What does this fold into?
Amino acid sequence: QQPVQSPQAVILREGEDAVINCSSSKALYSVHWYRQKHGEAPVFLMILLKGGEQKGHEKISASFNEKKQQSSLYLTASQLSYSGTYFCGTAESQGGSEKLVFGKGTKLTVNP
Amino acid sequence: EAGVVQSPRYKIIEKKQPVAFWCNPISGHNTLYWYRQNLGQGPELLIRYENEEAVDDSQLPKDRFSAERLKGVDSTLKIQPAELGDSAVYLCASTIRQGKNIQYFGAGTRLSVL
It folds into this structure.
C-alpha cells in the first residue's frame, strides 16, 4: 500500500520552515526519507525506526508516530539547496532488505 | 567509495525495439533493486535480488521484462519489446542485507520510447 504524502508541492522563501507528512494505512516498522533533485539519484536523508526517537540531519529533522502510522519531515530555516522532491519510503517489517514502498513525493521549491 | 553506477544515462528507442540497462552496485552490497520511476511519481519496485537470487519479482512484467545478476554483483535489466508506456526512469539501488535497509540509488537511465 503506497503511503500518502502531503502536501504535493510547497514553495518557500529562503529561511522559511516547512513540514512534509507521510501517512500509511498499514502498521510500519520504519520510514525512510529521500530527497531527489531533477535528473539526479534519490539521496538518503534519514531513517525512523519503530520505537526510535526523532532524528535530525543539519536543519532537517523527522518524527515517527507508530500508532498513527505517520511520519513528518521538518525543514527549518530552509536553504536554496533544500529544493527538490522529497519521498518517504515505508517498510512494514524488520528485515534488513525488505521492500520499501515510496510515496508520490512532495516537490519543495525554495526561492531567494 | 564509489556509488551505484548505471549506464546508459539516456536511451531513446522506437517501440518494439529491445533495450538493456546495466547497474553496478556499491561494493559489498549484496541486495540490489531495480525500480521504475514515472514522471511525477515515486520509485516503484520491479525486482529485488539477494546476491544472485531474485527474491521478489512479483511486480516485474515478465512477458517483456527480464533481469539477471550473474555472480551476485552487476545486474542487467532488459525490455523486449519496448512499448510506449515503458518510457520512464529506471533506477538501481543497493544495500547491505544485515543493515537498516538504507538504499543507495544510482542516477538512473531515462528511457524514451517513440
About this structure: The CA atoms of residues 27 and 69 of chain A lie 6 Å apart. The domain at 4-111 of chain A is CATH 2.60.40.10 (Immunoglobulin-like).
